Amino acid sequence: MREFKKSTRTSFAEAILEVGSENKDVVTVAADSASRYGDFVKKFPERCFNVGIAEQTMIGVAAGLALCGKIPVVTSYANFLAFRAIEQVRVDIATADLNVKMVGTDTGFSSAWLGFTHLALEDVAAIRSIPNIVIIDPADATEAYLATKAMFEYKGPVYMRLRGRKDEPVLFGGDYVFRIGEGKVLKEGHDVLIISSGSAIYESLIAWEILRQKGISATVVNMATIRPLDEALLLEITSSVRSVVTVEHHNITGGLGSAVAELLAEKRPNVRLLRMGVKDTFGTAGSEEMLKAHFGLDAKAIAERVEVFLKNDCENEVS
Amino acid sequence: MNLTEDKIGAIMKAAERIRKDCIWMSTRAGTGHLGPALSIADILATLYVGVMKVDPKNPKWPDRDRLILSKGHGCLALYSILSQVGFFDRKYLGDFCTKCDTLLPGHPELKLPGVEANTGSLGHGIAIGMGMALAAKLDGKQYRVFVVTGDGELQEGSNWEAAMAAAHHKLDNLVVIVDRNRLQLGDLTENISKLEPLEEKWKSFGWRVKSINGHDIKELLSTLNDVPFSIGKPSAIIANTVKGKGLKIAENKVEWHYKVLTKEQYEGLKEELALEELGNERI
Ligand SMILES: Cc1ncc(C[n+]2csc(CCOP(=O)(O)OP(=O)(O)O)c2C)c(N)n1
Ligand SMILES: [Mg+2]
Predict the structure, then answer these.
(1) Residues with CB under 6 A from ligand 1
(2) pTM of the prediction?
(3) Which of A18, A26, A174, B43 has the smallest number of CB atoms closer than 10 Å to its CB?
(4) The sheet that has A225-227: what strands, in order across it?
(5) How do residues A34-73 score in pLDDT, each as one tens digit?
(6) Which of A144, A169, A194 is where one domain is finished?
(7) Is residue B112 a part of any domain in this protein?
């Protein structure tokens, strides 16, 4: 792991500037906070629209722009996009299969002290309940950059999760490759398969090391695309590894853990599954570190739960 | 001194206390929406000390007046005034954004005595207030519902849906106070999505409107004690304010939307503003 730190928002803004410089159809729509688009706003003010604090209107305007051939990007706190504007997302964007890139920020625990209104722990569930939207949850700034570029190569609605302004450890170097729909094996092991995404990847990688020191060998998969899920990869790994753990900084209902559970229940009924995430409760206020510990989703808690899960042979492991 | 002068003095003292508490809490926590809180200090002090009927020892008293802070990010000011009038012990102010799962998070939640609605997502307060006002009419109760909104917040369409419906239902027990500080998160409201002519908007939605100086306690008191302005109509008060009011480096500065003093800045201002020791457990 490299020491370098950068926020996912910064690399998103860098990618938007590059993509938008090359493609004149790229436009941004903001609901008050236009700073998330970084220098693009300064360089191409004529292609940036601010509708005020009005997320539903932001999505509607993006739909109109897309219907006229533009490629709009919208950003907001994830909850105000995935919940406040969900009807517009469903009716205006998803059913119409519009080429709109929707970016929810401050996901997981990254909005920290702002409390449950801002903590985005159910956004993936909400968006995943709507057909036809690709969902990406990048693990670090490198992946956020690559995913931003990739979502413009893809034609259709995309929802991407970013986090706050804070710099985070950069996990991947310049040789990292991101493709929509591809899970990535970050560590290979044979005792247990840990599937994770977003800010939970960092914790999962540290947990991998803790487990390694205890003699437990884990495979860690970065499932940065939550939809479409990389079923082929998971079916291949679970043909030999029979214990699976999902780790997400999100509610265990409706997110990555649910997506994996749906797959395994149908195609690998003999695999044991433990879903780690926020256990069907609301977020609360705290620093990111406090919240990860509070909800048992930091590296230490992950390693402990995995160890117990592997020791405990009974099939009735409750999550 | 007459009764009103006494009252005005008490309100001014409470407003002063709000400002000091907000600065103290946010500096200790290293986070908080300080500018948005300072602009509503006088409004909240006037409401709680001079206008509203509440019983802090019985926070759920059914006949109480209700206040909804629709601009929930201004909660530092709300926490201060609720503690001052006795809804909870002032020792809890130190918990603002310092303890995990605190009762005083970055947006107000019902779990804290005196808070009437979960807010933080903008544009919810007027509709919730309308529901409370309808319940008062249904139950034949005299209580009033005050909703404090931001001005940028009014860009959310939900406010205007509720405004239209509340006028239709003749809810003269509903009062909206717009904190017209002319700034929102990223810029001036008039640079992002114009609100003016704001008075005319409320009027055309069927409300009676008054525009006042939101830092003039006398004017706040007389206006707020004059509601409803018309029988059968909801009242809107456009309170012209200064974002960050009382903290010179923050006044009218867009970046002070979500910015706090450093501990060094705090120490530097301590004498001038008669601020408390940061290390105190209780103020
Ligand atoms: C639905 C929703 N969208 C966006 C935000 C983020 N946000 C918090 S405060 C703010 C600006 C509010 O401006 P204004 O209403 O003028 O209040 P002030 O800060 O001036 O007190 C924004 C956009 C939010 N809290 N809720
Ligand atoms: Mg304002």
Answers:
(1) A 32, 53, 77, 80, 84; B 36, 39, 71, 73-74, 120-123, 150-153, 179, 181, 183-185, 243, 257
(2) 0.97
(3) A174
(4) A48-50, A26-30, A71-77, A101-105, A158-161, A134-136, A225-227
(5) 999 999 999 999 999 999 999 999 999 999 999 999 999 9
(6) A169
(7) yes
